[in-house]
Every structure is written in structure tokens, then in C-alpha cells.
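Hello,

Our lab assistant flagged a job as stuck in the queue for most of the afternoon. It eventually completed. Since we weren't sure the result was trustworthy after the delay, we are filing this so someone can double-check. Below is the sequence as submitted and the structure that was eventually returned. Let us know if re-running is recommended.
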Amino acid sequence: MSIFARRLAEVVGLAAIGDGTMAMLKPRRHAALWRGGPSWWDETIRYFEERPALMRAAGVAGIAFGIWLAARMDEAGGDAD
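-- returned structure --
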């Protein structure tokens, strides 16, 4: 895997961890940040905004994805700690 691909995966993993953390800590506020756009999008966001437990669960999934992605970098020839 190229250095660019590894760096990109690292950035995406960090973003997923940060996004998931905010979704867990402030689920309604975090969902509200994504309002705006087509009506189908706003309806989807409103669905999550009205269900903070679901938003928190999505946050946990985002964190898990970010950690998984970062762990893959070790397998793909990433630098050691």
C-alpha cells in the first residue's frame, strides 16, 4: 500500500473516531449539524435526531470502524508504534 493510501486511511480513521465520539457525547447536536439539503436527507437526519440512543449506537459503530481501519494499517505495512 502506498504512503498516500496509508495516510488517507489514517485520516479517514481519525475522522470516523472523532465523528463517532461526538455522536456519542452529544447525539442530538451532532445530528443537527448535518441538517440541510434534499428533503430525504433532512428526514433521515431528523430520524436520528429524535433517537439519541440510535445516534449513540451509530457513534460506537463509527469509532469501531475507525479503530479497525487504523489497525489495518499495521497489516498493510504501516509504521510500528
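-- support follow-up --
The delay was a queue issue, not a problem with the job. The result is valid. Residues 52-75 form the longest helix (24 residues). The chain has a mean pLDDT of 90.
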